[in-house]
Amino acid sequence: xxxxxxxxxxxxxxxxxxxxxxxxxxxxxxxxxxxxxxxxxxxxxxxxxxxxxxxxxxxxxxxxxxxxxxxxxxxxxxxxxxxxxxxxxxxxxxxxxxxxxxxxxxxxxxxxxxxxxxxxxxxxxxxxxxxxxxxxxxxxxxxxxxxxxxxxxxxxxxxxxxxxxxxxxxxxxxxxxxxxxxxxxxxxxxxxxxxxxxxxxxxxxxxxxxxxxxxxxxxxxxxxxxxxxxxxxxxxxxxxxxxxxxxxxxxxxxxxxxxxxxxxxxxxxxxxxxxxxxxxxxxxxxxxxxxxxxxxxxxxxxxxxxxxxxxxxxxxxxxxxxxxxxxxxxxxxxxxxxxxxxxxxxxxxxxxxxxxxxxxxxxxxxxxxxxxxxxxxxxxxxxxxxxxxxxxxxxxxxxxxxxxxxxxxxxxxxxxxxxxxxxxxxxxxxxxxxxxxxxxxxxxxxxxxxxxxxxxxxxxxxxxxxxxxxxxxxxxxxxxxxxxxxxxxxxxxxxxxxxxxxxxxxxxxxxxxxxxxxxxxxxxxxxxxxxxxxxxxxxxxxxxxxxxxxxxxxxxxxxxxxxxxxxxxxxxxxxxxxxxxxxxxxxxxxxxxxxxxxxxxxxxxxxxxxxxxxxxxxxxxxxxxxxxxxxxxxxxxxxxxxxxxxxxxxxxxxxxxxx
Length: 659
Fold this sequence. Notes:
The protein is elongated. It is α/β, with parallel strands linked by helices. Helix 15 crosses helix 16 (493-507).
């Protein structure tokens, strides 16, 4: 057995312990001779007992290993010792007590013998001593190994295991797997977000020039990766390439596509591109479905970005341009017709806005009630609580005979939905944002209408959905829908006031995300009998709220020269819209480009974020469990100390700004 190496089980730390005892005895000897002699004798006896016990244990183990080999014939012994498969025996999780020649050739490489396998093999996987079989993978020296082994309990009285492990070189398999992964076909869809708007004012000749230049640029852009690109229709392309080029696209090539600014005549035409990619599916068909979902998500988030979907979900890149307003109202007409048909086919319509409802949410809900009544259907609004921001409009609704019984609770809503009911969700599209998530699963038909950028956890089992991130508010979208529901639509003063107040809140008095269609919607409300003075009364705050808002602004500190962050942990805020209002006020200060207001109520932290465009606050808030728009977003973090939230916020800001 001269080829079998047995490591000494003697531990260095035990030697150190005995040495310390000897030194202590010598010191004692100096002060008390008899006591010192007694201690030296005692230590000597203990050391001899330890050596004997350790030697006996080592001998027992050696005999076990000898028996293991001697019980086999010479051919078996030679096979084990000289096997091309590296083998080793470990004591417990780490200590090498035996290995064969192949193991030595690969892992020792003529170096000093290491008794610790983790010290010898960097990256060696952890082994649990539980008697179970071992099956792990690791990389060493540029090679890949599959670690297989069994564990044996040498003594029934001791809970100690010895592991016999085999090292199987699976480098060829891993290289082949990587090649397969690299050669996977990634399916992408490219859409020019603002194509219709870009060509709307061009002549036919100029349109032809723009189309030719754009096609040439996109084909040239894709050429470096030997990709296949096919134009589908105006401003839309399908794109196929190998996955090994994906990182390059994300790091640099998408920026090259965005930098394209064609010149038509004497004017530059600024185009924005959205790309939806799908990969990692079980088939090309599934990758195609992933790609379609990705491009829908990219457009639902405002465009000008890359969205990737695989088996792990969505990931996002880009998205720094402001949403481009779409002047065509074709989508509004289509949604209005589809919504009308759905309402006509159902017995009851229930409308639900997000938790802690605001004027945009309640105003949109009232608009949907009017749409349902126009087709002679009963409609109801389910609310969880009435906060100060909607208190006035709710009182007006409840005081009106026309709206008697319109506002209902969760249990009434469930009863109405059970009777072939339709649930319309407004001003949000994530389950966690609604007060009664269980209602979403009990509706015969589900509709979502929202103006926020689409998040990964959107509700996907809808009968009809209408996402338009360009819109100023959900109230604007609902107002447009009402115009195409039929000529019989006639708004009441309360409905007109609520819809207008919703637009006032979300546009910051028509100064934020306000487009042509926003004013057209407001004009429709004005023609429907809107009194703007009455509507503005709905969005005013009281003196106490005003003072709290002023205190929040006064608490603001400047971070990274142009980012204002304010933290408020004072008096309880019942009307949490004051947090958003404070963020709006801060963004109006000269030199401030981004604002964050944090309010801690003792149980959770609320964040309201604003930006003028250089920082995408939606991405930052999504990392903290929230969402919104590129320029306006928010989040709610449960059960976290406000200081911890502040540090997490700063960390996300640093990542977003590249510092």
